[in-house]
Design goal:
The chain is an alpha+beta fold. It is 31% helix and 21% strand. The chain contains 2 helices and 9 strands, in the order H-E-H-E-E-E-E-E-E-E-E. The strands form 4 sheets. The protein has a 3-stranded antiparallel sheet with strand order 5-8-9, with helices on one face. A two-stranded antiparallel ribbon has the order 1-4. Strands 2-3 form a two-stranded antiparallel sheet. Helix 1 packs antiparallel against helix 2. The chain starts with 5 loop residues before the first helix and ends in a 12-residue tail after the last strand. The mean pLDDT is 94.
Length: 134
């Protein structure tokens, strides 16, 4: 087609809002000196998706720790597949990648976060819309 269907645009906006809510949650907690556990970020993102009416379209956890070979041994952003109580810690990296999936399409956005000396920081650009290919 020549335009992105509104249904897809709405779904993508929901996962972008969920991603941004998870980033804000971890950054706010770090500034306040609060401990952050993996399941908490998953819940923060999932709550936004649920508010947009897509609770039944969530099929995976929000993210995972980053290691030398993609998935690491640290805390995962997970209260879906498991309940990850492990802490996200300074010096670690993790993904935030909420998504929603339907019979005919799915959308997901993924970013990497590194918790450096200045707090959790997104390492690259954040996609804000679906890219038109036609």
């Amino acid at each position: 087609g020549t335009a992105i269907p509104e249904r897809m645009t709405r779904a993508f906006a929901a996962v972008v809002a969920a991603r941004d809510a998870a980033v804000a949650f971890v950054q706010d907690a770090a500034r306040a000196g609060r401990t952050v556990r993996g399941f908490e970020l998953d819940r923060a993102a999932r709550h936004v998706i649920e508010q947009h009416g897509y609770a039944g379209a969530i099929l995976h956890r929000t993210g995972h720790s980053l290691g030398e070979e993609v998935h690491g041994n640290g805390a995962h952003l997970d209260d879906y597949e498991t309940h990850d109580e492990r802490r996200l810690m300074p010096g670690s990296g993790f993904t935030i990648e909420p998504g929603v999936y339907f019979q005919d399409f799915g959308v997901r956005t993924e970013i990497n976060v590194v918790w450096g000396p200045g707090g959790p920081e997104v390492t690259g650009p954040c996609q804000t819309g679906i890219i038109e290919l036609v």
